[in-house]
Amino acid sequence: MINLEVKLPDTPGSLIELIKPISNNSGNIYGILHHHDKKINNLIPVSVSFELNENIREVSLKKIQKELEEKNIKIDNITFGEEKRHLTVILTGHVFDSDVVDTIKRLAKKKIKVYELQAKFTEVNEVSNVKFKIEFPEFMNKEDLIRELKIICTEKNLFLIRS
Questions:
Q1: Which of 47, 62, 93, 122 is the 20 to 30 A CA-CA neighbour of 150?
Q2: DSSP secondary-structure letter at 29?
Q3: What is the distance, to the nearest Å, from the Cα of residue 28 to the centroid of all Cα atoms in its chain?
Q4: CB neighbour list of residue 125: distance below 8 Å, 6 or more residues apart
Q5: Residue 18 phi, psi (nearest 5)
């Protein structure tokens, strides 16, 4: 994971100009923090977290830096974090009746983070589908993660669909 920190002018289109070079160089953006509350002299601090293909990481990052420089976007800081591993799953059943918060807390105890949840609400007595985007630690393999999810699904009478 790469975290890029810059200050952008508070003008329409500035954020797009920041993310275009990342996208153009095969960057997979995971998050953008746009700190309007910390604006100084019409400049807003922005952090972008993204990943690059390991095989071309160094070349891609240099291209991104060059393109940003050409757009007069000054990079304040670049940091490299550990690689995060992600999985998207869908739980089907009475997900909310079986306490979705408990499910998230149980995963968190295993260092598994639910960083996005999407749900389509139905009638209370009907089945719901909830999509979880999950980040799991390096020490855990995907099979262990699936095993944890299956245990929870079995206990709560839910059905697991995985990508």
A1: 122
A2: E
A3: 10
A4: none
A5: -75, -45
